């Protein structure tokens, strides 16, 4: 089950539907319950989506629900939420301050990790089609899901709101992308839903060392994409310039995909530049931070820190941390936690209050701690605990997991030498060379650490197959097929360990030849660990392949393992020759 969860959660999307009900908590509760039930994984009997926030507004008569999960689970959860809203919210009786066109007014899908915006656009289109086909609720597709260029703008899709739907549905140019030709009874009750895909929006405030809202606004106008009105003469009090059509002429700001204003916050006693970054691929958070700092300094101000409102994808902080490390000419081949610390300190994310990534990063909130622990049972142990677990009477972890761990330690040693070399006094001009090697080492180590637990999980699959019933011929056949499949998997996993561990030799060899000479022995030990990992994993390939009925597959896997083992022995000898020559 742990492996299924791991694969299941690699691709994550967020959904932020807005429902046209913000006062009746029973209705809101029923919709949220439908979302949670719809997103439940029937195979594992566990939540497939996680509701992060429910925000009802009485004046707007509108509730914003935020939930995340795998694409499959999110699509089903969203559909069930739309279905329930379409049953409980009568748009003929709806009144509120916010623009709206349906019981489920907007339904955006947002890529978080492992999936592109374009893929989310296709998913949104398929969801809109299903909503109309099965629920008879008309749907417009907007932003990255739009079929027509003008419908990328949500305001175009929602023009006239609910009250304009009878006319729009009957107009070939304005009718929904999925919907009837006439204003049906169902459309009258539920209205129309706007289904779209957009990138993640980051809401962020930059703290300034001033109490002046006007000066904060000036910085905001300098950087926001819209910019400021062009004026004649005095840039503050001069007459606003109009074009031939009477429209205000704007001087664009420096940041694409950014909206910003300045304001004063009583709680903190400072002014801030409040910004929405609507295109984080064009303008990442760290780029916006640097530009606001530049604009503030040009006006005699200083950015003292940054306040993230809501949540962010993990990549936002990782990209920022790597960016600031590179500016310092420091190696980026360090742990994810350390990279995040650099991001937090560089942008002053803890200026006003403590910043805990576990509470602000979406991926961390999605993953249940108990599930993560079950998936990474061994690598989360202490060194002593791992050794004691291995020494116990339990058959797993065994040689396969130990081999993967030895390979991970070999990669770790090579990475350590790269990081020490990157930071060595007098070698400043070579920091990028060693940083790149450290990045490679981190990637190899990460793969091998995952294989520590995957090898034990493969053994568990064999034991599960052996425990299947064998009373009837059908049961015997099913058991034999499951056992063959599990044995094949248990043979392939140590082969993956061999391939990953073999990559350590390139790293160890480069560090032995060109790295910090004071750490050459560490590179040598890394090569020794990698050889042991390869040969140890080969033993597991051979013993597991012996249990395969498909002898052709068994021979193929063993031959591939033998070839890697021979190359590993040669590679180790080459690295040790370099190491011994330098020590001598």
Structure in a nutshell:
The chain has 584 residues and is an alpha+beta fold. It has 21 helices and 15 strands. The strands form four sheets. Strands 1, 2, 5, 6, 7, 8 and 9 form a seven-stranded mixed beta sheet that branches. A four-stranded antiparallel beta sheet has the order 13-14-10-15.
What can you see in these coordinates?
The protein has 584 residues and is α+β, with helices and mostly antiparallel strands. Helix content is 53%, strand content 14%. The chain contains 21 helices and 15 strands. It has helices at 2-8, 25-38, 71-88, 117-135, 154-157, 165-169, 185-190, 213-223, 285-298, 314-327, 336-347, 357-360, 362-366, 369-375, 383-391, 399-422, 431-466, 473-502, 504-514, 520-545, 551-583, and strands at 12-15, 18-19, 40-41, 46-47, 49-57, 62-69, 104-113, 139-143, 193-197, 202-208, 228-229, 250-251, 258-265, 270-277, 303-309. Strands 1, 2, 5, 6, 7, 8 and 9 form a 7-stranded mixed β-sheet that branches. Strands 13-14-10-15 form a 4-stranded antiparallel β-sheet. A two-stranded antiparallel sheet has the order 3-4. Strand 3 (40-41) and strand 4 (46-47) form a beta hairpin. It is flat.
Give the low-pLDDT segments: 1-9
Helix/strand-derived class? alpha+beta
Round the Cα radius of gyration to an integer and report it. 29 Å
Q: What is the number of helical segments per DSSP (H or I, 4+ residues)?
A: 21
Distance between the first and last residues' Cα: 52 Å
Give a short account of the largest sheet: 7 strands, mixed
Strand content range: 5-15%
Number of strands: 15
- Overall helicity: 40-55%
Give the averaged pLDDT, no decimals: 92
Gross geometry: flat
């Amino acid at each position: 089950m742990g492996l299924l969860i791991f694969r299941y959660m690699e691709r994550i999307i967020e959904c932020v539907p807005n429902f046209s009900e913000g006062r009746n908590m029973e209705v809101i509760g029923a919709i949220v319950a439908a979302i949670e039930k719809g997103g439940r994984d029937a195979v594992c009997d566990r939540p497939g989506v996680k509701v992060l926030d429910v925000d009802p507004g009485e004046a707007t008569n509108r509730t914003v629900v935020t939930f995340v999960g795998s694409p499959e689970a999110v699509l089903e959860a969203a559909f069930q939420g739309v279905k329930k809203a379409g049953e409980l919210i009568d748009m003929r009786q709806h009144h509120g301050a916010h623009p709206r066109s349906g019981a489920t007014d907007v339904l955006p899908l947002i890529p978080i990790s492992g999936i592109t915006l374009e893929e989310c656009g296709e998913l949104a289109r398929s969801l809109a089609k299903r909503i109309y086909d099965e629920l008879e609720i008309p749907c417009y597709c907007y932003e990255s899901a739009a079929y027509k260029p003008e419908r990328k703008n949500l305001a175009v899709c929602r023009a006239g709101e609910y009250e304009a739907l009878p006319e729009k549905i009957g107009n070939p140019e304005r009718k929904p992308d999925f919907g009837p030709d006439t204003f049906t009874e169902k459309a009258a009750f539920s209205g129309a839903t706007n289904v779209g895909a957009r990138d993640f929006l980051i809401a962020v405030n930059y703290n300034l060392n001033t109490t002046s809202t006007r000066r904060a606004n000036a910085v905001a106008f300098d950087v926001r994409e819209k910019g400021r009105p062009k004026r004649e003469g005095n840039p503050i009090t001069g007459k606003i310039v109009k074009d031939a059509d009477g429209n205000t002429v704007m001087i664009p700001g420096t940041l694409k995909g950014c909206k910003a204003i300045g304001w004063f916050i009583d709680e903190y006693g400072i002014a801030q530049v409040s910004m929405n970054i609507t295109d984080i691929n064009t303008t990442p958070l760290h780029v916006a931070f640097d530009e606001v700092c530049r604009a503030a300094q040009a006006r005699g101000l200083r950015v003292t820190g940054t306040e993230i409102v809501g949540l962010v994808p993990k990549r936002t902080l990782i990209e920022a941390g790597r960016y600031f490390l590179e500016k310092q000419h420091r190696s980026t081949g360090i742990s994810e936690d350390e990279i995040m610390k650099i991001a937090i300190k560089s942008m002053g994310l803890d200026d006003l209050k403590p910043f805990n990534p576990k509470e602000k990063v979406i991926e961390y909130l999605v993953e249940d701690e108990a599930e993560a622990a079950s998936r990474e049972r061994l690598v989360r142990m202490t060194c002593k605990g791992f050794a004691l677990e291995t020494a116990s009477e339990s058959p797993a972890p065994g040689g396969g997991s130990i081999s993967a761990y030895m390979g991970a330690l070999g990669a770790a040693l090579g990475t350590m030498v790269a990081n020490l070399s990157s930071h060595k006094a007098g070698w400043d001009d070579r920091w990028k060379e060693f940083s790149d090697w450290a990045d490679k080492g981190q990637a190899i180590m990460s793969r091998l650490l995952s294989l520590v637990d995957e090898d034990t999980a493969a053994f568990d699959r064999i034991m599960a197959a052996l425990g299947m019933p064998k009373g009837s011929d059908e049961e015997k056949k099913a058991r034999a097929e499951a056992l063959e499949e599990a044995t094949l998997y248990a043979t392939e996993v140590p082969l993956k360990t061999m391939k990953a561990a073999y990559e350590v030799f390139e790293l160890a060899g480069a560090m032995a030849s060109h790295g910090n000479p004071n750490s050459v022995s560490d590179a040598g030990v890394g090569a020794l660990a990698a050889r042991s990992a390869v040969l140890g994993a080969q033993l597991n390939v051979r013993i597991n392949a012996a249990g395969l009925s498909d002898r052709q597959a068994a021979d193929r896997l063993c031959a591939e393992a033998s070839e890697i083992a021979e190359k590993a022995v040669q590679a180790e000898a080459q690295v040790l020759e370099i190491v011994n020559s330098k020590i001598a």
